[in-house]
Hints:
Chain A is an all-alpha fold.
Amino acid sequence: MMAAILRRPAPICATISFLFILAIWQAAVDFGFVKAFFISSPSRVALELVRQAKSGEIFTNLSVTLYEFIVGLIFAVVIGGFLGLMASWSETVQHILDPFIWFKYSSPTIAFYPMFVAWLGLGEVTIIVMAFLFAVTPIYANTLSGIKNTDPDLIRAAISFGANRRDLFFKVSLPASAPLLIAGLRLAVGRALTGVVAAELFGAAAGLGYSMSYYGQKLRTTEMMASLVVIMILGVIFTQGLAALEARAGSWRTGPGR
Amino acid sequence: MTQTLQDMATSGRMEIRDLSITYRKPKSDEVFTAVDGVSLTIEKGSFVTIVGSSGCGKSTLLLAMAGLIPKASGVITLGGLEVTKPGRDRAMVFQDASLLPWRTVHGNVRFALELQRWKRDDIDERALRYVRMVGLGAFADYHPHQLSGGMRQRVNIARALCVDPDVLLMDEPFGALDAQTREVMCDELLRIWERDKKTAVFVTHAIDEAIFLGDRVVVMGRNPGHVRDVIEIDLPRPRTNAMLDSAAFVEYRRRLREYIAADLAALQMVEALV
């Protein structure tokens, strides 16, 4: 038991530090150091989550947020991936896209929000556009560099055996850049969630971000934190799942063979 | 498959006539001549080695035979047909790092068969047969990063042979290996080659390797790359390591060293003048 802990200390340490913070938080409220009104407490948040689950409120918000998140992400993957591929095939396309990518990289994406509110109004469409804008850059950048930086020795060897463009793409460039493409997707997932929640905070009729801002304005800390917990769990599930996929896709680089 | 007598006589015979290859230096109009006026005949079933100091254009010449780089002038024919692009009649063994790292040993050999559109139902079995032939049967499911340099080159050789080319082109395949592994690999290469004696062209900068493997050694010199001499190696086959110390071998080695030394001396003179 002890030996096992020493061999894999990371998850144990993480669990202990997490539980420690929860305990301090709970104790600080229970022993009256801080008012629950300000910071709520783990037990209150847990009870609130149960209440919202029973009333269905949490699922309504979750499904709205998930819908906006997934649609935004799909647009980002399709458009970002397509543009990334085009740019990897043609330097001209890459140079045409360059200024837009620079603007996008060097300015905070949220600054575009008021513009889209003016064009599209408050609500679902604007939120989806924000999720798209947040997520599209890493998809584009990773697709471009993944396909473009395929080892030229591999390309040359494949050509020497008679590979055509289609073979080169599907049998060499695509598998060679798989780890980078999945890394781009993992970044995009985290950013799309940021975009959805940020946009929902300012103008929405439902969703987890809306719920947080609604309860926040009424100073109902517990209800607000319940939604925050759901958002955090959502983010962790997506990014950790993709990190695991990424490790598998890149296992040929360092891991054991199968 | 039916072949005419004409095909039988010329398939696997490579003819190079007045070949020149030039590169345009990047970002300038300066043209650099890598290979100049090379003529060479490689008989069917012979093992020809090309030796020369680095920068003499020997790898460039081989890449042109593979159809991977354009010619400035001259003609290369294989079996009477002009070589202009990579084809099923040739297969190439590269120096290193040309295995797909995400594919297993078996998958890498299979890769060549897939690219040449071999019938789906027997490529698995055929790939495995060639993996076994190079002595890697127990490592068929390993990935390249788990193999030693020598083992990776065995995979490279299996990949080139499994597509059944008329000519095997090898670009310093043992260049990155240590001396002991090199010797083992040379023995192994000859053992495999003796089976069906495919036409083989082997580029190297190691003189002993060139003599030990070749029926003929083509000596190249530089500025620009040209053929200085073609030496017939009159040693019996199968070749053995004992021959490395024979009087004939030592004499070949001495002659080749002189050529290379003269080439390097000429280079130093040019550098001194510049």
